[in-house]
């Protein structure tokens, strides 16, 4: 029988229990996400039914089951990483756990690595350490923690290799190192061996086994993750009992034998992690796993068998065979036990008989098992949670700064593709300058040429920046959903950092683009016009970023976003003031960001022109001043027109960003994993 009130030499253990977990999802899921789908009411289907069980520190548990059995759903439900219609309780030593508490004491290792591929292994861990460690942790302590983790998971030699160049096993170990930054008590791993060869898979599970069953503890680094004052109370109590030393070290060895220790010799660096904030605890890990090999299966201390969204068995690994044998299912010789259990459950008759009996036996034997122990350990877990709750994240402003650094680093690492795109951008500028270089004095013929060149300036800036950002959210949504869901940073910090990172790029490209054209077309008008036109084009680019981000957040794929942009583009262009007299449909022109950009540029160019050459013998009306040019295009001519359009572009950008933020927030908080 498990002992949840004690953990041998390690002191009281922590026991996590889940009771009657049920999870409901819409019966008909859509293949592509959009906010329209979120507004529909759908019939719900229960995919996790009355799941109950437990795990305690020192356990390494494997969740086994066929495809669709509910392994990942159970894992996400226990770890509180599941949003939506989830019912039931998750308790720690009898104390109910909320989502924010679980994310502080546990880590979730996803099936697929979702991190920034352009970072090196060291850069990624160091970057994440700023978010996951206490705000008062020094840079030297963070660097030391990162170095220890890289050494512990065997990535010291690959520390400065970019993530995209690491092997599958190395990326999996890097993900594990990331989750160990805060030294969590509970580890939840979704298919940690997926895509790995047998040796790499065995190494990953063996690392988890070592973390769960053998811990060497040092208390002198408690402040590195949770802060210097996080454990003052506990330290005082310890000194009262006569310890009195600054560093208390103990070694906890549980469920280990000579063959396991022999196998651990290729992982000597795991002792580095002994200096951990949660030093008085062993860990517990629970993994969903698909068809483990026999040697990997033997590393697990316990297994959970699932079928049809239900737990049909939980117990020690070596006892599972006896349960099946008692029901008439004999484990063949030289057979992988995991394959035998899964095959038995997959069999139609076996699933009905063995599954039902095992489930009933499991529910009967675990009913009320931990009640007495919880009463003894409840105050202990309460003290532990108080220590964890002393954790303070970095401030919002610093989050924005770090995320901007990440975005800019990604851009610099992808400088080759960025330079190619910038080259084509400048080719467009040169082409326009050659096409309109024949514009001479202000004549009746050049009125149309100037209008056309200004229209092309405006369009090029808006289309370049709007379509240049439509890929952002479809590619980043998995990372955002995971990291925001884990509480790594706030969604508002991410969004603000994203927007701010585009502002210097918008101003730089706008002025460089204009410089080429201005030098061959408008150079006679002076430097002040150059500055004002460049500023307006920069604001147009900023507004275009908002428009592009809006399209990006409206759909889950960049292909869908670019294809569905056509109707929006058409409406904006029609009411931009070039293709039709916008006064024929009053008010609609103010919905177009093209209108504000065109009007401000045209106003800035023509408002000071008092004389336009007008030949005596002409067959068409003659425009004599710049004011008449503006009136003919239905543009405003008031003194405040330029600055009003600048302000309007900022308002349009803000509106687009508010709507985009709301759409992304709906995605992050929608039902499902994370």
UniProtKB/TrEMBL annotation:
Keyword annotations of the record: ATP-binding, Membrane, Nucleotide-binding, Pigment, Transmembrane, Transmembrane helix, Transport
Originating organism: Drosophila kikkawai
Membrane topology classification: Multi-pass membrane protein
Main location: membrane
Region (Disordered): 228-248
Bias-annotated ranges (Low complexity): 232-247
GO cellular component, one term: plasma membrane
Domain ABC transporter positions: 33-260
Descriptive protein name: Protein brown
Subcellular location: Membrane
InterPro entries, per database record: AAA+_ATPase (IPR003593), ABC2_TM (IPR013525), ABC_transporter-like_ATP-bd (IPR003439), ABC_transporter-like_CS (IPR017871), ABCG_dom (IPR043926), ABCG_transporters (IPR050352), P-loop_NTPase (IPR027417), Pigment_permease/Abcg (IPR005284)
Keyword DNA-binding applies: no
């Amino acid at each position: 029988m498990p002992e949840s009130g004690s953990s041998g030499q390690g002191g009281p253990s922590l026991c996590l229990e889940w009771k009657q977990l049920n999870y409901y999802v819409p019966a008909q899921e859509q293949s592509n996400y959009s906010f329209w789908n979120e507004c529909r009411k759908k019939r719900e289907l229960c995919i996790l039914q009355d799941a109950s069980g437990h795990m305690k520190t020192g356990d390494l548990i494997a969740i086994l089951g066929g495809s669709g059995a509910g392994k990942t759903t159970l894992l996400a439900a226990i770890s509180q990483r599941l949003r939506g219609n989830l019912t039931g309780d998750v308790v720690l030593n009898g104390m109910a756990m909320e989502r924010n508490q679980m994310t502080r004491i546990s880590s979730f290792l996803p099936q697929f690595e979702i991190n920034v591929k352009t970072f090196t292994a060291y850069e990624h861990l160091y970057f994440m350490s700023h978010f996951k460690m206490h705000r008062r942790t020094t840079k030297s302590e963070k660097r030391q923690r990162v170095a220890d983790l890289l050494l512990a998971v065997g990535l010291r030699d690959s520390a400065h290799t970019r993530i995209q160049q690491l092997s599958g096993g190395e990326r999996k170990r890097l993900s594990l190192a990331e989750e160990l930054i805060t030294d969590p008590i509970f580890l939840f791993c979704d298919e940690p061996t997926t895509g790995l060869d047998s040796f790499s898979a065995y190494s990953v599970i063996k690392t988890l086994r070592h973390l769960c069953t053998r811990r060497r503890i040092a208390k002198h680094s408690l402040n590195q993750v949770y802060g210097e004052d996080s454990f003052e109370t506990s330290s005082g109590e310890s000194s009262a009992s006569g310890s009195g030393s600054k560093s208390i070290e103990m070694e906890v060895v549980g469920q280990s034998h000579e063959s396991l220790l022999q196998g651990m010799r290729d992982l000597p660096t795991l002792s580095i992690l002994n200096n951990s904030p949660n030093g008085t605890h062993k860990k517990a890990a629970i993994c969903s796993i698909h068809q483990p090999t026999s040697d990997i299966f033997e590393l697990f201390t316990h297994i959970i068998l699932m079928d049809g969204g239900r737990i049909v068995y939980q117990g020690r690994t070596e006892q599972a065979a006896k349960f099946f044998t008692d029901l008439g299912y004999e484990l063949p010789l030289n057979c992988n036990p995991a394959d035998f259990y899964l095959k038995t459950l997959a069999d139609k008759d076996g699933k009905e008989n063995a599954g039902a009996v095992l489930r009933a036996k499991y529910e009967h034997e675990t009913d009320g098992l931990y009640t007495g122990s919880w009463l003894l350990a409840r105050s202990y877990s309460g003290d532990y949670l108080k220590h964890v709750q002393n954790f303070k994240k970095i401030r919002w402003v610093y989050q924005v700064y770090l995320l901007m650094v990440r975005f800019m680093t990604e851009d610099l690492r992808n400088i080759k593709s960025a330079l190619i795109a910038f080259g084509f951008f400048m080719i467009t500028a040169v082409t326009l300058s050659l096409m309109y270089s024949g514009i001479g004095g202000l004549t009746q013929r050049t009125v149309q040429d100037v209008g056309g060149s200004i229209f092309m300036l405006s369009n090029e800036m808006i289309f370049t920046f709007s379509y240049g950002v439509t890929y952002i959210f479809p590619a980043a949504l998995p990372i955002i959903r995971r990291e925001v869901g884990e509480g790594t940073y706030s969604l508002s910090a991410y969004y603000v950092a994203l927007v701010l990172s585009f502002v210097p790029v918008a101003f730089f490209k706008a002025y460089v683009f204009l410089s080429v054209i201005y030098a061959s077309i408008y150079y006679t008008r002076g430097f002040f016009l150059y500055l004002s036109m460049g500023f307006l084009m920069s604001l147009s680019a900023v507004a275009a970023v908002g428009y592009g981000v809006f399209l990006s957040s409206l759909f889950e794929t960049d292909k869908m976003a670019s294809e569905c942009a056509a109707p929006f583009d058409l409406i904006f262009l029609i009411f931009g003031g070039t293709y039709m007299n916008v006064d024929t449909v009053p008010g609609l022109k103010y919905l177009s960001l093209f209108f504000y950009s065109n009007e401000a540029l045209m106003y800035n160019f023509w408002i000071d022109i008092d004389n336009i050459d007008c030949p005596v013998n002409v067959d068409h009306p003659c425009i004599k001043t710049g004011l008449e040019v503006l009136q003919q295009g239905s543009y405003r001519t008031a003194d405040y027109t330029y600055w009003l359009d600048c302000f309007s572009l900022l308002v349009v950008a803000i509106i687009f960003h508010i709507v985009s933020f709301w759409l992304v927030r709906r995605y992050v908080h929608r039902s499902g994993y994370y």
